[in-house]
Specification:
CATH class: Alpha Beta
Shape: globular
Structural class: alpha/beta
Helix content: 25-40%
GO biological process, one term: proteolysis
Low-confidence stretches: none
Organism: Rhagologus leucostigma
CATH superfamily: Zn peptidases
Radius of gyration: 15 Å
Number of helices: 6
Oligomer: single chain
Strand content: 15-25%
Largest sheet: 6 strands, mixed
CATH topology: Aminopeptidase
CATH architecture: 3-Layer(aba) Sandwich
Distance between the termini: 14 Å
Number of strands: 6
Family: Belongs to the peptidase M28 family.
Number of domains: 1
GO molecular function, one term: metal ion binding
Subcellular location: Endoplasmic reticulum; Golgi apparatus; Lysosome; Secreted
Length: about 190
C-alpha cells in the first residue's frame, strides 16, 4: 500500500481550506490523475482523508489500530499538512537506502524545480506508521504565508492558488505512482 493523505477537519473559526483541505485536495487529485492517465501501478494506492487531527489525532490512531496487523504491506505513508503553497520537495523519514531511491524519484520533478529531499517527514496522521518503521513523506512548500491564515477566519478557499496546488498535486502524483510501480518496496 502506498498511502497518500490529508485531513478534513478544520479549526473552528475557519473553513480549513489551507489547513488542511489543500492536502486532501492534492491527495485526491493525485489518484484522479493516475486513473485518468490509465496508469495501473503494481501496488495499491490508497487515499485517506483523516479526521480528528485537531482533536488529538483520533482518526489516525483508529486507522492505525485497524490496519497495523498489515504493517508489512505498507510501502510508504505520505501526508500533506503544511498548506499547498509553492512546493520545494519532500520531507522523508526512512532508511538511507530508501532515501537514495526517493532522491532519484525527485529528479523526475526537475522540470518544475521541485527536487529537494529534507531530513525528516512530519505529520500527526502518519506518525504511528513512521514510528514503527514505515517510510514516510510530507510535502514541503513555501510556508511564509501559512501562519497568516493558520487556524484563523482567513483560512478560506481564496488562500489557495490553483497553480501552486497543481504543482503540489504533481509532486504527490509522481512520487506515489513511481513508488507504487517499483518492482520492490522501499527498503526498511
Amino acid at each position: 500500500v502506498v498511502l497518500v493523505s490529508g485531513h478534513l477537519d478544520s479549526w473552528d473559526v475557519g473553513q480549513g481550506a489551507m489547513d488542511d483541505g489543500g492536502g486532501a485536495f492534492i491527495s485526491w487529485e493525485a489518484l484522479s490523475l493516475i486513473k485518468d492517465l490509465g496508469l495501473r501501478p503494481k501496488r495499491t494506492l490508497r487515499l485517506v482523508l483523516w479526521t480528528g487531527e485537531e482533536q488529538g489525532g483520533i482518526g489516525a490512531k483508529q486507522y492505525y489500530q485497524l490496519h497495523k496487523e498489515n504493517i508489512s504491506n505498507f510501502d510508504i505513508v505520505m501526508e500533506s499538512d503544511e498548506g499547498t503553497f509553492q512546493p520545494s520537495g519532500l520531507g522523508f523519514a526512512g532508511s538511507a537506502e530508501a532515501r537514495d531511491i526517493v532522491k532519484e524519484i525527485m529528479t523526475l520533478l526537475q522540470p518544475i524545480n521541485v527536487t529537494d529531499v529534507y531530513d525528516n517527514a512530519e505529520g500527526t496522521d502518519i506518525a504511528y506508521w513512521m514510528r514503527d518503521g514505515v517510510p514516510g513523506a510530507s510535502l514541503r512548500n513555501d510556508i511564509n504565508k501559512y501562519f497568516w491564515f493558520h487556524h484563523s477566519q482567513g483560512d478560506t478557499m481564496t488562500v489557495q492558488d490553483p497553480n501552486q496546488m497543481n504543482l503540489c498535486a504533481a509532486v504527490w502524483t509522481v512520487v506515489s505512482y513511481v513508488i507504487a510501480d517499483m518492482e520492490e518496496m522501499l527498503p526498511r
